[in-house]
Amino acid sequence: MKQIEYRKILAAVNEHVNSEISARFAIQLAKEAGCGLCLCFVAEKNLPEDSLRLAEEAANRLFHRAKQLDVPVEIILAHGDPVDEIQKLVSSENIDIVFAATRHEDIEKRFFQGTTARRLSLSLSCSVALVRVVHMGRIHPGKILVPLKAGIRRIQEKAYITSMLARSFDSGVYLLHSTRPLMRFFHGELHLTPDEWETKIPKDISDFINCLDEYGIAHEKKLLPGKTGRNITIEAAARRHDLIIMGASERGLLNSIFKGNPVEEVLRDTPCNLIILKLRHEDT
Fold first, then answer.
1. Radius of gyration from C-alpha coordinates of the chain
2. How do residues 92-108 score in pLDDT, each as one tens digit?
């Protein structure tokens, strides 16, 4: 397997605390991946002076934190529309992935319609990590939950990000695969032995696990029948996970309306911090 290798990460910073927490995940990823970091603040038109000051203070704190970890870092200040300016930087700075925090309004708007988060995930040519901060005091996750589904895309990149963050935080990794219930009246958990697990999982999930093994990341596996979004939030709450890392939904708008969107459900109900990945690097 030819492993993914990031060269530069961009973290979008603004006056909100959530963006600073999101950027700290980016710093840890850059540290473990051995790549550069760009802290970007885009000042929108008519931004209040207080908001500008808060954003500059956050960028300076993040800059010093990156320096403490020996991460090559720079601060870029731009003016205009955040998505447009970040898009320019992705191209000019050869950015591999952008970290950005979701906002409270993202949770209220169905399918992220009209939000900066959705615009970033749809328009950028690089990968995007959208971070929803629930617990500001848990930015060093001890337990990371990684939901898996059949049909994983960008397996290598997802395994790379998971592995780098797990290494950086010295976190335990817990894999969760939701399936349809075996029987209509089945309401409990399906506990499998390791050998039974291997016979049940789809090949792409098996390939993801193999990638984690190549990075030397220890993990636990669990299979749960039932609705995907609910399973993820219940598992995260019951086992007190600190962070969920999951892929963005590939479902179209019409399909999401009729069948639901697990990512939207988890974004709304997650009991812990959440990273939603919209990945662009193709598997090799």
1. 19
2. 999 999 999 987 655 55
Domain boundaries, the chain: 8-132, 143-274
- Write the pLDDT tens digit of every residue in 184-226: 444 555 555 556 656 667 788 889 999 999 999 999 988 776 6
Q: And the tokens for 42?
A: 């885009």
Q: Assign 42 to helix, strand or coil.
A: strand
Beta pairing, strands 273-278 & 127-132: antiparallel
Name 75's bridge partners.
39
Torsion of CA 148, 154, 156, 160, to 10 degrees: -80
Q: Where does the pLDDT of residue 250 fall: very low under 50, low under 70, confident under 90, or very high at 90 and above?
A: low
By the 10 Å C-beta count (0-12 exposed, 13-18 middle, 19+ buried), 195 is classed as exposed
CATH code of 8-132, in short, is: 3.40.50.620
Domain 143-274: CATH class, spelled out: alpha beta
Cβ-based neighbours of 201, under 8 Å, separated by 6 or more: 177, 209, 221, 223
